[in-house]
């Protein structure tokens, strides 16, 4: 489902690996999403990257965080070896619900902020119809085909580049702008 969320941006999301922790958690899962994200990103850098070539890792976990948070990711970190990832709570019985949370956190990794009136970027899809991917959590499942925030804040290269682009080229262009 997740690749469909990004179809309007002509971005292809490919699953390059899947690891299931069936014997024990490989990180300390905290009630704080910030602490859990930090623990997961440390594990990714130390353990996963040496074993599997990938650009981003997303943890999908059971349980819950304090408050209403169901996911967290590092902003504009897709090109970062140490910060490209997110943590997501499997909070719904629907696979599409989890996929929309992962797509939302990937959006943050790609540099997208929440769609808010303050940013003059509001969701045109009513919450009862699912809302939009980059909208702050609505409790409903966003429309997976047409409603994706495509207004990343500068200096995100997505604003500058149209069409198909390899992530390695995107990261090289990002490095030139830093």
Automatic annotation (TrEMBL):
Keyword presence, Isomerase: no
Gene Ontology annotations of biological process type: innate immune response; integrin-mediated signaling pathway; proteolysis
Keyword Zinc belongs to the record: yes
Active-site residues annotated for this sequence: 105
Pfam families: Reprolysin (PF01421)
Gene Ontology molecular function terms on file: integrin binding; metal ion binding; metalloendopeptidase activity
Keywords noted in UniProt: Disulfide bond, Metal-binding, Zinc
UniProt cross-references to InterPro entries, sorted A to Z: MetalloPept_cat_dom_sf, Peptidase_M12B, Reprolysin_adamalysin
Location of the Peptidase M12B domain: 1-140
Positions with a binding annotation for Zn(2+): 104, 108, 114
Source organism superkingdom: Eukaryota
Cited PANTHER family: ADAM A DISINTEGRIN AND METALLOPROTEASE DOMAIN, DISINTEGRIN AND METALLOPROTEINASE DOMAIN-CONTAINING PROTEIN 15
Record protein name field: Peptidase M12B domain-containing protein
Organism: Pundamilia nyererei
Lineage per the UniProt record: Eukaryota, Metazoa, Chordata, Craniata, Vertebrata
